[in-house]
Amino acid sequence: MDKIKLEIKDVLGTVSQADIDALKGAAQAGLEKLVKGTGAGNDFLGWLKLPTDTSDALLDDINATAAALRRDCDVVVCIGIGGSYLGAKAVLEALGNSMGVNKGPQILFAGQNIGEDYLYELQEYLKGRRFGIIVISKSGTTTEPAIAFRLLKAQLEAQVGREAAGKLIVAVTDAKRGALRTLADTEGYKTYVIEDNVGGRFSVLTPVGLLPIAVAGYDIKKLVAGAAAIEEATLNGSDTSAMVYAMTRNALYRAGKKIEILVNYNPKLHFFGEWWKQLYGESEGKDHKGIFPAAVDNSTDLHSMGQWIQDGERTIFETVISVEKQAHEVRIPSDADNLDGLNYLAGKRVDEVNKMAELGTRIAHVDGGVPNMRIVLPGLCECCLGQLIYFFEVACGISGYILDVNPFNQPGVEAYKRNMFALLEKPGYEAETKAIKERL
Ligand code: PA5
Question: Ligand 1 centroid to 195 CA: how many Å?
Fold first, then answer.
């Protein structure tokens, strides 16, 4: 198996190896808290050994459900938000065709926003089409996906009848609790369980992510195997890169680098950045602490954010995901007139230009006071993505413990919900409604 690789030499002008090594004890203690379950949030460690614990029977069952949806649907709408959306979206974008020309059903998403026009246009698009729904909500009560599901369930039932609709809907939710569980049991939907001890942002390797990825036709066994390889190597101590990443970013944070920018040079990784932002933002941004996770897509964003990164406030560092091998080859043609002056590139692969943009940017940013880490991904395949997902998950747990926060809760997420419910006059929120209306 081609392994992902972490390089940290380009941070050493900002922090020393000794600064990083000074956090080794804390990182080892963090890993031990994960393994022994002795740290804060230890009731949410179900993801830690998930890759090696996932049975072939479960993967086969998911593949069978996926095959049925692939057979019966031209469009499958995945409904979910946050951790119940971003992992699948990230993997599908990374593995899919950039023009959306994929084999199998088209995968669309809903419930990840409350855009009225988005939902209107989605419903218009689905009119008369053979569509199915994967509805994903661990709590089963989240407002955004609940609204989308109510709309699309009604539409599907109107289009094919209630009984047939029931066979085209799969629910991924809690084993026992929540409105979605009750509804799924009542309607007899096929269901998958999100275990209590796996938080949303750590759930991509459960049916939450695996089912949509399988429906899109990708190999979930390879994805899980990639993750399992990093799990084993990290937990048995033979691969310390997750620890080193956690130590290095905390050393940089202590040196005043408060913002980490995840950088890619491959547009297929845009949503991987979104997934990573949630993972680190929700895990670490608490107790008025935490590195702010940002992301850019280069070279696109070099033409928008490049100025700030090169010359703005020196509170940032970058972690660059570099994809070694491209799946396809495109060479720049020669042109007899050479009016654009590009003949010096004739015969070169586009990726060679991209790699030089990456290297040139790294040197410029490091020279400009932006320390860089680099994660080399052999290619964009299921196995590499599985490795990268687990690498970031376990590093996140270790990093949160170095930072001395509970990496597995998200109390701050509730604040907007309380206000929204009060403003919408949800039953049970009468006092909050009165209080918030007095402030307006
Ligand atoms: O990480 C989290 O816990 C959140 O992002 C949730 O995944 C998100 O709010 C969706 O929650 P649920 O799956 O309960 O609908």
Answer: 13
DSSP 349: B
3-state secondary structure 10-46: HHCCCCCHHHHHCCHHHHHHHHHHHHHCCCCCHHHCC
Which is nearest to 310 in space by CA: 367, 253, 262? 367
Q: With the CA atoms of 334, 337, 339 and 341 taken in that order, what torsion angle do they form, in degrees rounded to the nearest 10?
A: 40
Long-range contacts of 349-353 (CB under 8 A, 24+ apart): 351/326
CB of 112 sitting under 6 A from ligand 1: no
Paired tokens of 229? 């390889």
Tens digits of residue pLDDT in 196-205? 999 999 999 9
Distance CA 291, CA 6 (A): 19
What pLDDT shows up at residue 134?
98
Q: Which of 43, 44, 81, 282 to mutate to test the pocket of ligand 1 (most atoms within 8 A of CB)?
A: 81
β-pair type (372-379, 5-7) = antiparallel
Whole-number pLDDT of residue 414:
87
Tokens of 311: 């010359």
pLDDT at site 1:
86
259 CB-contact burial (10 Å; exposed 0-12 / middle 13-18 / buried 19+): middle
81 lines ligand 1 (CB under 6 A): yes
**CB-facing half-sphere around the CA of 65: CA atoms within 13 A:** 26
Q: Is the CB of 83 under 6 A from ligand 1?
A: yes
**Distance of CA 148 from the midpoint of ligand 1 (Å):** 15
42 Cα to the center of ligand 1, angstroms: 18
**Which of 85, 139, 276, 282 to probe ligand 1 with, by most ligand atoms within 8 A of CB?**
139
Residue 110 CB less than 6 A away from ligand 1: no
Q: What is the value of pTM for the model shown?
A: 0.97
pLDDT of residue 330: 98
Q: What are the tens digits of pLDDT across the range 108-131?
A: 999 999 999 999 999 999 999 999
**303 is annotated as an active-site residue:** yes
Per-residue pLDDT, 410: 92
**What atom of ligand 1 comes closest to residue 410's alpha carbon?**
3
- In short, whether 30's Cβ falls inside 6 Å of ligand 1 is no
Is 417 tagged catalytic?
A: yes
- Structure-token pair, residue 144: 């955004």
Task: Give the residue ranges of the chain where pLDDT is below 50.
Answer: none
